[in-house]
Specification:
Length: 332
């Protein structure tokens, strides 16, 4: 049976009232799904708040690594995802590719014990576990600078996976040198070595887009997410995680125009006026957009029917080390 959005919202509200469940939604979710969430936020806030949440079930509307992180941090919780959609960037690295990266660094003369790995939270539990086992930790876009500063203090080479843009942007902000594995630069000569992953959504923004908006609206501000290419971040007025972008834009005077380089759903609900999307192509994250209101309804209904669907499971040894890597981040 096909229900309208309004009917689905009523059904979802009723199910939420009757079940011991918390619905969680990342900022990039479709508006109608986002509206139904009890907890919203960026990836760091969601990891923290889910850990403190007391419900038996968490229904996580986001991408796979986010639900997985909740399960790893709170193994006794039952975590369901209306869609187990895999972030395209997280998919760019798995355990084998991670091991290959370590082998490349070893071949260039860097001893394994002198490598400190950091993984962006946009990665699988398998990769987080490998990082945890090697003494490394997780970071998100809102705390990457703090985490990298701490790691550099240990005097080791940093291997940053999987997002080359975030790694290089933070290196630039800190005045540190960086390279991407395989770009021909000797990794021995730099502070931060980045894996060659990226977010296809955040690659949509170009210098031409920035030039267009600056010419069209002199005085406009450009605000972007650090998953954008370093050339884009360097040409922008503000670089921040989703939460940091929201705070920055909400604090601007109403008449101040701003053009934003991040996912469409979030930008679209930021401000009624004077806010533009930094691309002529709609920058929608395909995986974040997979989750529909009907998926959310069916997932909640499955809990009511005592046959939960799409439950996240993480193997015990992977969960153990992924938790270590996540907790090292949360401790900071
Ligand atoms: P945040 O850490 O800012 O929530 O970003 C997650 C993400 O996937 C951005 O593309
Ligand atoms: Fe992954 Fe990019 Fe989508 Fe974020 S916007 S979830 S990094 S594919």
């Amino acid at each position: 049976m096909n229900y309208s959005h309004e009917e689905l919202k009523e059904k979802i509200t009723e199910l939420k009232n009757n079940l011991n469940v918390t619905v969680v939604g990342h900022f990039y979710q479709r508006d109608e799904v986002y509206e139904m969430a009890d907890i919203t936020g960026d990836s760091l806030e969601l990891a923290r708040r889910c850990q403190a949440d007391k419900s038996e079930f968490v229904v996580f509307c986001g991408v796979g690594f986010m639900g997985e992180s909740v399960k790893v941090l709170s193994p006794s919780k039952r975590v369901l995802m209306p869609r187990i959609a895999c972030c395209a960037m997280a998919k760019m690295i798995d355990g084998e590719y991670y091991d290959n990266s370590i082998a490349i660094l070893e071949k260039s003369g860097i001893k394994k014990e002198n490598i400190l790995p950091i993984t962006y939270i946009n990665s699988s539990a398998e990769v987080k576990a490998k990082v945890g086992e090697m003494g490394g930790m997780v970071c998100t876009s809102s705390n990457a600078k703090i985490i990298i500063t701490k790691a550099l203090g240990e005097g080791k080479k940093i291997l940053f996976v999987p997002d080359r843009c975030l790694g290089q942007n933070i290196a630039n902000q800190m005045g540190k040198s960086s390279c991407v594995i395989g770009d021909g630069i000797d990794p021995n000569s730099v502070d931060i070595i980045c894996y060659d992953g990226f977010c296809s959504v955040h690659q949509l923004f170009s210098l031409d887009d920035i030039a267009f908006y600056r010419k069209k609206f002199p005085g406009i501000l450009v605000a972007v997410h650090p998953e954008c290419d370093p050339t884009i971040c360097d040409a922008s007025d503000f670089v921040g995680s989703t939460s940091q972008l929201i705070k920055y834009i909400k604090e601007l005077p109403l008449e101040q125009k701003v053009v934003v380089g991040t996912e469409f759903n979030m930008v679209n609900r930021l401000r009624e006026k004077n806010t533009y999307v930094l691309s002529s192509t709609k920058p929608e994250c395909p995986t974040m957009n997979e989750t529909t209101l009907n998926d959310l309804y069916l997932t909640l209904k499955s809990i009511e029917d005592k046959a939960p669907i799409n439950e996240i499971q993480v193997n015990e040894n992977t969960a153990k080390w992924a938790k270590v890597a996540l907790e090292r981040m949360l401790a900071l």
